[in-house]
Amino acid sequence: MSVFAITGVRINAQNGRIELVRWGQVNPATNTWAKEPTESPVIDVVDAVMGGDDVYTIFPVGGNTVLGPKVQLVVYAHGREGIETVDAAYNAGRTLADLPQI
Fold first, then answer.
1. How many CA atoms lie within 13 Å of 17's alpha carbon, on the beta-carbon side?
2. What is the secondary structure of the chain as a DSSP string?
3. Structural domain boundaries of the chain?
4. N or C: which end of the chain has fewer CB within 10 A?
5. Cα 38 to the chain's mean position, in Å?
6. Averaged pLDDT, 6-25
């Protein structure tokens, strides 16, 4: 099982769904990038979560990077899959929409 972090998103203005993410694999022992973040379609995140990988958000705060909420799968109307944050209220209300836009 791998750990990934999302650092940015592109949200479709027409339907509000995330289309693209900037993400990379993280070394949880050192909290450093195991692989530099790249841009990928959101389906790659869906596949990672379905495969058992952990995916989190990370946010820039005061010149530092802070771990945000974990990402989970959602199924929209018509069966289309996507992602959202887990229990955003517990994590100071942070959501994927709060990440930098790419």
1. 14
2. --EEEEEEEEE-TTT--EEEEEEEEEETTTTEESS--EEEEHHHHHHHHHTT-EEEEEEEETTEEEEEEEEEEEE-GGG-EEEEES-TTTTTT--GGGSPB-
3. 3-98
4. N
5. 12
6. 92
